[in-house]
Amino acid sequence: APLGYENYIDERGKKVVRPKEPDATIIKKMFEMYSLGNTSVAELEHYANIMGLKSRKGTPISVNSIYFMMDNTFYYGEMRTIRGVMPHIYKPLISKELWDLCQEQKALRAGNVGKYSQKPVVFKGMVRCGITGRTCPCEYKKGKFSYIVCWMNNKTRSYIREEYIIKQISSILNRIKLPNNVIIELQKELK
Question: Quick check: 151 and 132 in contact, CB under 8 A?
Answer without folding.
Answer: yes
